[in-house]
Amino acid sequence: MNAAFIGQDAAWQEWLSAIASVRMHHAWLLSGAKGLGKRAFARAAAAELVRIPGQSVPEVDGHPDILILEHLPANDDEAKKKAEGKPYQTKRNITVDQVRAMIRRLVTKPTLGEKRAIIIDPADDMEKGAVNALLKALEEPPFGTYFLLLTHQPGRLLPTVRSRCRVLRFAALGAGELDTMIQQGAPHADAAARAAAIAASHGSPGVALDFVEHDLGGIHRLMLRILREGDAQFHLRGLLADEMGARPARDRQIATLELARSVLVHQLRDASRARQMKIIEAHGVLTKLSTQASTYNFDAGLLIMEIGGLLASTAMPREAAR
């Protein structure tokens, strides 16, 4: 079992059983919250699918029968950064041109074996034209071609796409599994840091690892205070901005957005109906910001104040954000 997706044994066994079956479904929807290991799972699943019997599992990168559609670099300069192994900005969506280029590949048979895997990561971020182009391929899939669509929010996909896919659900991890993953991914983290990350992540290994790597303990404590107390005087939002820092790295900003989303989701369970609606509204805005953060150059100070304001708008004692 791949350590990158610890805790998803049931999903992995379901995938292996499907490969061994006589009539394997041609399209799969890998569904679950962001940070549960769907990306690593999809790549391992694709490698297992195209593996030639009697041979070892092949490498995914560069394999002619594994096609991965994901966010492309935003421009030529960002493409150069990617080629040099540096962090780079991406386009906002998976484009229709990417899907059409993939479909053109499907007129030929798989190169090395009898099966081909198409990974779309994430399918949530396809342009409307890309979704329509993909739908045609899902309706009439070429023999030996299998689709793996990663989705953090299945509701964003067209019902016609979802109805053609078999759903493979990814479960939240338990504390022990999270602790194992943190120790593997961030061996420098001590027991106290791991415990704080586990408590803040609510089952998401991605959030837990980001919590440790970006030292989000102080930010998390302030988020919880805002949710408990509100922030009518903007004092806690000021402290939140100080904790974030004047020029945080983009990854730290994205990790903070994901942490805020996780914190809000956990609030839903015990909230009143009226407060639930506020939480859902704030979560939707955070989701949009999280999607944009990888490509937009947000002002860090304004972004953290926006996050704080959204949390304050859902605070227990009153709607404190004005």
Could you explain how this protein is built, in words?
The chain has helices spanning 9-20, 38-50, 76-83, 96-105, 128-139, 159-162, 175-185, 191-201, 205-213, 217-229, 235-244, 250-267, 273-293, 300-312, and strands spanning 27-31, 66-70, 116-121, 145-151, 166-169. Strands 2-3-4-1-5 form a 5-stranded parallel beta sheet, sandwiched between helices. It is globular and about 65 Å long. The N and C termini lie far apart (49 Å). With 322 residues, the chain is α/β, with parallel strands linked by helices. Strand 3 (116-121), helix 5 and strand 4 form a beta-alpha-beta unit. The mean pLDDT is 90. The protein folds into 2 domains: 3-169, Rossmann fold, CATH 3.40.50; 214-312. The chain has 14 helices and 5 strands. The protein is 51% helix and 8% strand.
Task: Indicate the topology.
Layout lengths: L8 H12 L6 E5 L6 H13 L15 E5 L5 H8 L12 H10 L10 E6 L6 H12 L5 E7 L7 H4 L3 E4 L5 H11 L5 H11 L3 H9 L3 H13 L5 H10 L5 H18 L5 H21 L6 H13 L10
Parallel strand pairs: 1-4, 1-5, 2-3, 3-4
Brief summary:
With 322 residues, the protein is α/β, with parallel strands linked by helices. The chain has 14 helices and five strands. The radius of gyration is 21 Å and the shape is globular.
